[in-house]
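Can't attach files on this board, so I'm pasting raw text. These are the components:
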Amino acid sequence: MTIDLEPSTARPERTVPAPLVITRDYSTPDRIYRAGVRISGAGVFLLLVVIGFFLAWSGYPAFQQAGWKFFTRSGFQTLGAHPTFGVLASIVGTVEVAVVAMLVGAPIAIATALFLSEYAPLKTRRTLIAMIDLAAAIPSIIFGLWAVFELQPNVVGFSTWLSRHLDFIPFFKVVSPPLNASIFIAGLVVGIMIVPIVASICREVFSLAPAGEREAALALGASRWQMIRTVVLPFGRGGMVGAVMLGLGRALEETIAVSIILGGSFTVTAHILQHGGSTISQLIAINFGSGGKLGLQDLLLCGFVLFILTLVINLAASAIVNNSRSGAGVDL
Amino acid sequence: MTPETTTAIVADGVLSAGGQDSVGTFEHRKGGETSDIMPPDAATPQPPPLPPRRLPSPIRPSAFGAQDVLILVAAAMSSLCLVWVVFYQLTSLSGGVGFLVCWYVGFVVLTWIATAQVIERQVATDRVVAVIVVSAALLIVAIVVFIVLWVCYKAIPSIHWGSLFTKDQKSFVVTDPHALDQVGVVHAIIGTFEQVLVAVLIGVPFAVATAVYLNEVKGWGVKTVRTVVTAMSGTPSVVAGIFIYSMLILTHVLTYSGFAASLALVVILLPSVTRVVEEVLRVVPSGLREASLALGAPEWRTVWSVVLPTARSGVVTAVLLGIARIVGETAPLLFTAFGSQVMNWKGYFNHDQGALPLVIFSDVRQAQPVLINLAFQAAFVLMAIVLVLFVLARIFSRPKGKNGKRRKARPDDDDLMARMFVPIPIEQNEETR
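---
Top answer:
Structure tokens for the assembled complex are below.
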């Protein structure tokens, strides 16, 4: 077979039609529609900026008054000639509540997620997921009620026992006796409240562990736990960290359940079992309207601190979850 | 392996792995030292046949028989006795929770020891993990069921149905034993209703439009807006309250009012609903959009008549869950609605208003038993509203199929409520399902 490599000069020259230029010429209604949804998108962006701006702007006078000592002092004494106020004890309390909540909630949540994704029979799984999701739907004020009336009376005995027998650990030491309304109890409730949230994300991450590797592990004779330990957990590690951080963000912001429980005091303390303690959101909710103009500015500044704190944690956590879902950070 | 066979295999294109050839190749790769896989026709003399070895019967960790139940029961009982003796008798523990915790630890440890003794250590670990995992899930389910029933138990015996939904908290005689039929929470129900209704009317169109922007219009700003939505859905609810307070009430644009409360609730509702709606829009098949556009429909028509109706059930679910979330929010209302003892549905725009969560929050700290009872009744009403919304949302989360029935549930569309609280990012690369 021969191929004529020379183009035949006898052929008539084809005129190539000019390519059709596709213009995006939107009609007027379309322009209005596009502008409309763009504006709402920009509105959300603006809203976040405005929230930050107004909190900072209205809280700034308090910062002028206290300076950087705002972060190193504690108290809410804003009336009178020599106001002293600060957020240190509340920040410490917030962290303590969140840590207790994570220590209680994260293991339960991860175990629950494992149960739902690996152990639960298919028929009951749906019901169980609904029940656990319902825990997220119960308003936090009802959790608070339950904690004050039912949980607290039962936990105080446990706290007493901890403080009596484990007081060589500084956290369990008790200096001033009443053991109700403590950071420990508040953390316990918040820990229960974050379980459905953390479990929900962990469950999704676990279910993304590849079926091939699971089956390979089982085929090699691994028991279910060995399969989970060698396949599911390593694959889900990043997602678990992100999920726990998202739970942490939720634990930091919880207001009402904590406000109902906590005794409220402005001493920086590591003794989480005893009465007292405060968190930033509890400080805002309880003292609103009681400290005059300066008190109000103080609270707005506290709100700004909380806002920035949760913003940073949530953004970092969701970035981690997103990365882990796309498969990054997994060695194969 | 002869050259002829090699060519034959290549020519046929068959990569068979059987017969003497492959055995020979294998042996060659192993260096020819592994004599026990030599074919039987090899020159070496046959070793005398080994006596048949009895394989141990396989241990199946997943098998769960009468023996395993017995181990669990025995561990539970012995842990109970042990903990009772050690803690009540020797170290004087008190309180149900402490006893339960110690009993549980004892139970897990004893289960491990017993299973390791009776069966095997690896089985013991597997079994103990299963026990822990099951009990964690059961614990949460038990707490949820307990809270729901507990609120009913505390509220229902003292409810005066006649007054609860018709009277407010204006006045009652403290000493009167029948004071409960002089008070009710109708002011709070109406207040909550107005506040949530307006919040939904403002927030949902805003949220849907933003979701449409993120998923249908797109453009250079999408990434930023998506990050902002993610960031905002973690905004503390107390911050939403003091933000509205500082922006509108402190500057005398508004007074304490239901409307201010609605705006604060919008701040909470908006990002949550936006995220869920965007995820719903994402799974609308793009073929539908393209078909509509190819038929000449303008974009707005495509979104309005094709995309949104297709996603209707998902949007309804998102809205219902959003309502379920904001209806119980207390913290933002403290700074905006402020709370009131009396019915004033007309004062929505210019007067402080009651709300169900506020009634609970303020009354439960009062001294009068009447008010504490009223707080529990308000909690009961609030819980009932949330439960109804939750159930409705679950029904709507399953869109109707072609036969008019709702499709069967998928295992992964069931915990949407948890997603209303945390800024879970939406996957950007691929379809979520």
